[in-house]
Amino acid sequence: MIGKAFRRKNVLVIAVVMALAGAPAFATILLFENVGLPMSRELQGLQSVKGYGDRVTGASSGGFTGSFAKGNGWTPNVVVEFSAGNDLKTVSTWRDKWDGGDGANYLLDGDTVEPYFYWYRFTPSRGFGVVVNSLDLDAAGNATNRIDWKIFAGSKIGKVLASGSTGRFSGDRTKLDLGMRKPHHGVVILELAHTGGRTSLAVDNLDFDEVPAVPGSEIVEVGHRKQLLVDNHVIAGMSNLKRELGRVTKLNGGKPVLVRDQPWERSCTYYGTALHDGQKFQMWYRASLEPFALGYAESRDGRNWIKPKLGLVEFGGTKQNNILDVDLGLAYAFSCFIDPHETDPAHRYKCCWGHPRKIRACLGHSADGLRWTPYNNGEPVTGRAADTHSQLMWDEDAKVYRLFTRTDYQRFLRAEMEVRGHRGMTNPDLKRNPTDWKLGRHWYFNREPKEYRRRQVYSMSDWMYHGVHFALISGFDYPQDHSEGPRDLQKRHERDVLNFYIATGRDGENWDFQWVYAGQPLVPRGPAGSFDKDIVIPPSNIITHKDRHWIYYSGSNERHGIRRNDEAIGVATLRLDGFVCLAANDRPGTVLTRPFRLTGDKLLVNVQGERFRVDVLNRKGEPIPGFSGDQSTRYRGVDELRLAPTWKNATGLSALRGQVVRLKFHLENARLYSFHVPK
Asked: Taking the CA of residue 507 as centre, how many other CA atoms within 13 Å lie in the half-sphere pointing to its CB?
């Protein structure tokens, strides 16, 4: 055991939520036996199963009293999640009798040549820490297997806390020591790489310790970065507030701003990208599908676009056009970005596209965004697939390139229809080795049995803004369901349609899909008869310009599986930081931040509403004299992107600089979008 500092021992058989802080020491053992869960529910863990799973002093195969249902007093300190890079299943979903275990473990599929990757993600809250100690490996038969493991801090590209290998072995392994000796106060990732026989090995009894918080571990890093309120990253608690999705404004009266209007154009649609290079808006779009032709347009104001005659590519019998490429097939699932990390001007722009024949991702670079040179001699840098929005980006926080493409699940699920999924990969230096991509995560929508009939991820790109990853998702709702009738260019349909949703995350791999499951698109489809009534396809990124977010999208007036009349590109704008807000509607509400060290002399707040004020508290949540209560300025009818709150006896926060503080925001009929401490 690790020592007296650890409050209790936790033994995990399936993904769980851990015990209440301050409770006496005992084991937590969760099993799936005798509950008859379908596969999708097993993979989620027992926290969704009413009447099953609770704190116990020993194992049982008949279920435990109590549950994870709301209202039973659970306040989790550690959440454990399981994901897979290749194949995701439990033993009991694979076979009724497993000769190596209890029928309740996570199955590690495998291959005798290439490893299959699996991950356990431990997310502690309230400053608690984690030490991952050991696990059991249950084998079926006498197959030869090998497990290599790494334990990362923060993410799969974080600091390695421990690593090791079993080497080749057969039979079971019990109490396999994973080598982690010191606690980590933050997210911990256990990565398992299995090489060996298929369906021959499973994980059982994953043993870890929850470690009490240490002084200072509850402090969140704020610095000078703007704090968006899309999640609880900086929030300790709130009352009478709810999160609301921002409302966009479609420009040009909801009509497209870019249409097919040149004799050489055969389409005008995404997949593509819009950027602002500091002087002008730029757009890359699909100008033809057969053959694939990538078009280019420019704008000074983002509304009125020109298609310059570039003289680069002969198309339609002339070079007097705006076509950038035909030979490489760039228009097949294209996206690009200006690389802020790049020092070589020839590689300033980087792009990703899907190889039209091999259906795999390719990469390229350009000095001006017009003349593209492929990496890897134009050959794909990944395996299948890449026939929807493929995206390459630089993650400045993680110091890696990220690559996102679609992937397939039909064969894995033995599904009766195409099942689309998504994957993310990382590469620290794509110029040095453009094929060195490490898989981060495969995923598809699977909260419900056969959810692929209800929704699928058609494509997804990742846009980073002030430390938050925004997944721009093309959600395929009720795929292949044409029950609403034949082709109709006036009727607004609800099935076999594509909606533009967002999800949020902090690491580019794990996402909060609340807006998808709430059925709330960021950019709604248009009304009956509009060009975008049935399909809205997201861009690869969002432009922030003149205190607005500019969101270009492709729209279509018929369903995915029905012949469409035409496609065009529209644009919507959004309030600065207005993606998600905390709203107080019927009753006054408050939000309390976690403690953070104040690094500046003033506070700037993005807020809109009838009444607003902010108190400054100390680390314990106690009012600081002169900065709270009656001393806080009360604002009425406020609508400011950068409100600088004041206090009656102090115009700013210079007297508190360097101290650990909390903020408590008070709202009445108001919306809070963000705050930050400027330099």
From this structure: 16
Please count the CA atoms within 13 angstroms of the CA of 2 that sit on its side-chain side: 25
Which pTM does this prediction carry?
Answer: 0.84
Question: pLDDT band at residue 216, thresholds of 50, 70 and 90?
Answer: low
21 and 152 both lie in a single domain: yes
Regarding whether 587 and 567 lie in a shared domain, the answer is no
**Tens digit of each residue's pLDDT (9 = 90 or more) over 571-601:** 999 999 999 999 999 899 999 999 999 999 9
Token readout for 26 is: 């005992």
Q: Indicate if the pLDDT at residue 59 is higher than 80.
A: no
Q: Does one domain contain both 559 and 584?
A: no
CATH number assigned to the domain comprising residue 661: 2.60.120.260
CATH of residue 364's domain is 2.115.10
CA distance 609 to 353: 44
pLDDT surpasses 80 at 250: yes
How far is CA 225 from its chain centroid? 20
- Model confidence at 112, pLDDT cuts 50, 70, 90, reads low
Measured at the CA of 447, the angle between CA 443 and CA 453, to 5 degrees, comes to 85
601 in the same domain as 552: no
- Do residue 556 and residue 643 come from a single domain? no
Each residue of 172-194: b (16+ CB within 10 Å) or e?
ebeebebebeebbbbbbbbbbbb
Q: Stretch 390-397: mean pLDDT, rounded? A: 96
In a domain, 317, yes or no: no
Characterize the bridge pairing of strands 548-556 and 106-108.
unpaired
- Domain presence at residue 162: yes
Are the beta carbons of 490 and 529 closer than 8 angstroms? Answer: yes
- Structural domain containing residue 640: 227-246+580-676
263 occurs within a structural domain: no
Tokens of 327: 């030979």
Instruction: Specify which residues 136 forms β-bridges with.
Output: 204
